[in-house]
C-alpha cells in the first residue's frame, strides 16, 4: 500500500471516529488515566469485577442468577474449573458447536448467551474488552496454542454403570441440598445469591455446556461438594450430573419452534436430556 493511500485511509478513519462521537462531544471529555500502567490495572480490575459480579455489572447481558465465577471458580483461576489462564492461549480456535473459528471474545459471548441465559455483549464493548484484559492478565507467562494441565473441566472416564437418575437423586440428597436446596433453586438472601441454582428458570439454559451430563460430571467430580472436593466417586459424579441435568431449565436460544427438531439439530447425543421426558415432564418442551 502506498504511503499516500495509507494517509488517506487514516484521515478517513479519524473523520469517521469524530462523526461517531456526534456534534459537540469534546474528544478529551473522558478523564485521562494517570499512566498507561494505571489504565491497564483499572481494566484488569473491571474485568475481575464483571467476572465475579456479572448480574450487577453487566445487567443488560445476564438473564439468570449466575455469575461467571460460579462455574469458573476462584475468580477464574482454579485448575479443572475451566480457568481463564489456560483458556486465553487456545484462541482463536475452531468450535464444532458453531462451526467456525472463534476468537476469545466470541467464546466469552457464548457463555453470556447460554450459561448466563442472556445476550452476547458487543464485540469491542466495555464488558468484552474488560473480560479479555482480565484473562490475558491471568495468562501471563502461559504457553500459547497448547493445552496446559488444568484447562477446561475434567474429562471423566465412562462410569462402570450407565448414569442413573435414582442413584443420582440419592447422591444429591446426601451431598448437595444443604447449599443448592432440595428444589435445585439455590439460596438467596434478599437480592444476594448465596448458592447458585442448578436448574429451573434462574439457572443456565439448555444451550449451555453444563447441561451436557459429561461436562457437569467433570465439573462436579473436581469441584463439588464445595469444601469436600474429590469426595464423590466417578460413578457418583455421573449419577448426580444425570440427575441435575434431567430437570427443566430455560429454553435453548437456538430453539427452532419444535422441541423434536431442536433435539435433532443440537442435542442428538446421549449427553443431553433435552427433548426427553422425565417424571412426566418433557424437558425443553414447547413453551417451557
Ligand atoms: C453454568 C456454568 C458457566 C457459567 C456461569 C459460565 N461458564 Fe464459561 N464455560 C462453561 C463451560 C461448561 C465451558 C466449556 C468448558 C470445556 O469445554 O471444557 C465454559 C467455557 C468458557 C471459556 C473457554 C474455556 C476454555 O478452556 O476454552 C471461557 C473463556 C468462558 N467460559 C468464559 C465465561 C465467562 C466470561 C462467563 C461469564 C460471562 C462464563 N464463562 C460463565 C460454563 C460456564
Ligand atoms: C457447601 C455448599 C455446597 C455444596 C454442599 C455443594 N455446592 Fe455446588 N456450588 C456451591 C457454590 C458456592 C457454588 C458457586 C461457586 C463459586 O461461586 O465459587 C457452586 C456451584 C455449583 C455448580 C455450578 C453453578 C451452577 O449453579 O450450576 C454446580 C453444577 C454445582 N455446584 C453442583 C453441585 C452438586 C451436584 C453438589 C452435590 C454433589 C454440590 N454442588 C454441592 C456450593 C455448594
TrEMBL record:
Keywords: Heme, Iron, Metal-binding, Signal. Residues 1-28 form the signal peptide. It holds the Pfam family SoxA-TsdA_cyt-c. Residues 247-271 are annotated as: Disordered. Residues 163-248 form the Cytochrome c domain. Transmembrane segments: none annotated. PROSITE patterns: CYTC (PS51007), PROKAR_LIPOPROTEIN (PS51257). GO terms for molecular function: electron transfer activity; heme binding; metal ion binding. SUPFAM superfamilies: Cytochrome c. PANTHER family: BLL4482 PROTEIN-RELATED, CYTOCHROME C DOMAIN-CONTAINING PROTEIN. This is C-type cytochrome.
Amino acid at each position: 500500500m502506498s504511503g499516500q493511500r495509507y494517509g488517506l485511509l487514516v484521515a478517513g478513519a479519524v473523520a469517521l471516529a469524530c462523526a461517531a462521537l456526534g456534534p459537540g462531544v469534546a474528544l478529551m471529555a473522558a478523564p485521562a488515566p494517570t499512566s498507561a500502567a494505571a489504565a491497564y490495572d483499572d481494566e484488569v480490575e473491571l474485568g475481575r469485577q464483571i467476572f465475579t459480579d456479572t448480574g450487577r455489572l453487566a445487567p443488560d447481558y445476564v438473564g439468570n442468577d449466575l455469575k461467571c465465577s460460579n462455574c469458573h471458580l476462584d475468580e477464574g483461576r482454579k485448575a479443572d474449573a475451566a480457568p481463564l489462564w489456560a483458556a486465553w492461549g487456545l484462541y482463536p480456535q475452531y468450535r464444532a458447536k458453531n462451526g467456525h473459528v472463534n476468537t476469545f471474545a466470541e467464546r466469552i459471548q457464548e457463555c453470556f448467551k447460554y450459561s448466563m441465559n442472556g445476550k452476547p455483549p458487543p464485540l469491542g464493548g466495555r464488558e468484552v474488552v474488560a473480560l479479555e484484559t482480565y484473562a490475558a492478565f491471568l495468562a501471563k507467562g502461559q504457553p500459547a496454542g497448547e493445552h496446559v494441565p488444568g484447562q477446561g473441566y475434567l474429562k471423566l472416564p465412562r462410569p462402570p454403570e450407565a448414569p442413573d437418575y435414582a442413584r443420582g437423586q440419592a447422591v444429591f440428597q446426601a451431598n448437595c441440598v444443604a447449599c443448592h436446596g432440595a428444589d435445585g433453586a439455590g439460596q438467596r438472601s434478599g437480592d444476594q445469591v448465596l448458592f447458585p441454582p442448578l436448574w429451573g428458570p434462574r439457572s443456565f439454559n439448555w444451550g449451555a455446556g453444563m447441561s451436557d451430563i459429561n461436562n457437569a460430571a467433570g465439573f462436579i467430580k473436581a469441584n463439588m461438594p464445595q469444601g469436600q472436593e474429590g469426595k464423590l466417586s466417578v460413578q457418583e459424579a455421573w449419577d448426580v450430573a444425570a440427575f441435575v441435568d434431567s430437570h427443566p431449565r430455560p429454553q435453548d436460544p437456538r430453539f427452532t419452534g419444535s422441541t423434536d427438531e431442536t433435539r435433532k439439530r443440537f442435542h442428538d447425543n446421549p449427553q443431553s436430556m433435552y427433548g426427553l421426558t422425565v417424571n412426566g415432564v418433557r424437558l425443553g418442551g414447547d413453551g417451557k
